[in-house]
Amino acid sequence: xxxxxxxxxxxxxxxxxGKFKMEKASYFNRFRWHYSSLAKLTFWSFVFMGLILVFxxxxxxxxxxxxxxxxxxxxxxxxxxxxxxxxEKRVKSSAKIRSPNGLSVLVTGAAGFVGTHVSAAxxxxxxGVLGLDNFNNYYDTSLKRAxxxxxxxxxxxxxxxxxxxxxxxxxxFEVVPFTHxxxxxxxxxxxxxMENPSSYVHSNIAGLVNVLEVCKEANPxxxxxxxxxxxxxxxxxxxxxxxxxxxxxxxxxxxxTKKAGEEIAHTYNHIYGLSLTGLRFFTVYGPWGRPDMAYFxxxxxxxxxxxxxxxxxxxHGTVARDFTYIDDIVKGCLGALDTAEKSTxxxxxxxxxxxxxxxxxxxxSPVPVSDLVSILERLLKVKAKRKVMTLPRNGDVQFTHAxxxxxxxxxxxxxxxxxxxxxxxxxxxYVSYYGSGKKNDH
Length: 442
Prior knowledge:
Layout: H1 8-11, H2 27-58, H3 85-94, E1 104-108, H4 113-124, E2 128-133, H5 141-152, E3 157-160, H6 166-175, E4 180-183, H7 197-217, E5 223-227, H8 253-272, E6 276-281, E7 284-285, H9 294-304, E8 307-312, E9 320-321, E10 324-325, H10 326-338, E11 345-346, E12 349-350, E13 356-361, E14 367-368, H11 369-380, E15 385-390, H12 405-411, H13 419-434
Parallel strand pairs: 1-2, 1-4, 2-3, 4-5, 5-6, 6-13, 7-10, 8-15
Antiparallel strand pairs: 9-14, 11-12
Helix pairs in contact: 2-7, 4-5, 4-10, 6-7, 7-8, 9-11, 11-13
């Protein structure tokens, strides 16, 4: 595998940087309202309990040979050791703010696709940035390490650790009084949830709760922006998808955990005064992307001469996605961070109402997957071997389409990259990183 790493790789990508009178409710109507609210609360309680049970049942027993260290405060889950004067110096240096009115941001999932780009953009404008990532093997870890190397050359230190390690998170907040947390760490992928459901509960629910627990105790509490997903819209058929639409029909466990995350965020905002902003990403693509995404493995398999699956809905219906280029997503992430209000709690106690928001970040222009393949064929100058298949019942939905008017209104979010332009940049990066030969297997 040809890995040509240079500091210009990420830098070459464009910078992202009628009126009515309300009557008094009858006793019956008040009862019905309370009953409805209780029913909803009961439903979501059972959902959370069920997911946690799945995690507990599916999690393998602890091996006798991997006993828990006696000094829990000096370990991170399944990661290298941390702590010490040298380590703290690197943490402080990375998180140091270098511009007037800059932010100090802890970015979880910093070695991930979106995390890498967001971290680089924050650093470029002078914000203090500290990364956190556990470098799991959901996909090729060498790609994550390459992203890490890229960020390190710009002065960003990524702490190797797990978001479920409360001791590590507390230590980071002791060393650096972060003003913001950009929580991007999560178990991604719709289909993988059928193979390893417990990993989604571990990362997307337990991990989120752990991050919020540490943040609520911090003094001062940071403002938190976190990654939800367009998947929460599930079986919703109203288009384009709006933040006001129902999201109680998830089509996958991944979507269910992200929906659960939004409910958990509401709870911590209500009880502890945490400022929380959720971002529903719509099919993000671009350089340094995730190998499990269709545009990525389509490129790989077209170059290798392998057939690629083109899914269609019932009655030959079109499968389309609101593909959103990474630079546009980064602009949305920074816009959310810059408009995030301060949390109102202190030491775990709420002192006033805090900001709670959810935004769609998409491109507003759904494109059929078959058109995506046609663009790749032209860019790669290779004819794809298409294999048309019926969309399986594995959690994927037939289409996505974002209404972004709320984000436009709140922080001027406006995507500018069409699919043709974005894929051209991706293919250029792909060929530079992996080479154009058919022998590459990653």
